[in-house]
Amino acid sequence: MRILTRPLHTSHPLLSKSLPPRVPLPDSDLIENFLKGSGPGGQKINKTSSAVQLKHIPTGIVVKYQDTRSREINRKMARRILQDRIEELQLGEDARTRVRAREKSKKKASKEKKARRKYRALEEKKAGAEGEKGEEGEDVEEWDIEGGEEKIEGGGLEKGGDAGALQEVDRGGSRDRLRDPGLCRLMAKSREDQRALIAHNRVDA
């Protein structure tokens, strides 16, 4: 049985292609010293010479690294940091650290833009739902007003109110006049208020 394996990439392939090659560090250009570490880490850090200090003779850049207890790992990390410092000095904005920083900034801006777009879509959806709910409420209110008008007309005839009085109320606007919000609020009161309104319209006529 044959097992296929694929290499593990820890960086984006497009980003790796756009990065400049690392600056070579010949040993003849370096002064390397091993020092005792300081700070937290116990005796392995404070009483052993595991910290690495590198000095680049042509540029005078000095780097010290002591984050691990392993001298070999500290040497590798110190050389990498020194290479980045030299690239920044020689290449400026084209250095690997600057390119990575720009890519990170672009990704952060893109993520924030997507978040704002998603939030805006949710707000528009919420506003649309509230608008539909408001329209449904208006329909119900108009139906109640029409029902009140029918009740007013029926109540006026049942209690002895003549049709001529209703015609006086409807004159000049028919049912459109009854849809007036102010007039409907008056008509929505008790039947005694309805009769008083009809009498008032008779006097005005």
UniProtKB/TrEMBL annotation:
Comp. bias (Basic and acidic residues): 120-134, 168-181
The keyword Mitochondrion belongs to this UniProt entry's keyword annotation: yes
GO cellular component annotations of the record: mitochondrion
GO molecular function annotations of the record: translation release factor activity
Keywords (A to Z) from UniProt: Mitochondrion, Transit peptide
Biased composition (Basic residues): 103-119
Pfam families from the UniProt entry: RF-1 (PF00472)
Gene Ontology biological process terms in this record: mitochondrial translation
Sequence ranges assigned to domain Prokaryotic-type class I peptide chain release factors in this UniProt record: 24-121
Region of interest (Disordered), ranges: 1-21, 96-181
PANTHER family for this protein: MITOCHONDRIAL TRANSLATION RELEASE FACTOR IN RESCUE, PROBABLE PEPTIDE CHAIN RELEASE FACTOR C12ORF65
Name the record gives this protein: Prokaryotic-type class I peptide chain release factors domain-containing protein
Species whose genome carries this gene: Pyrenophora teres f. teres (strain 0-1) (Barley net blotch fungus)
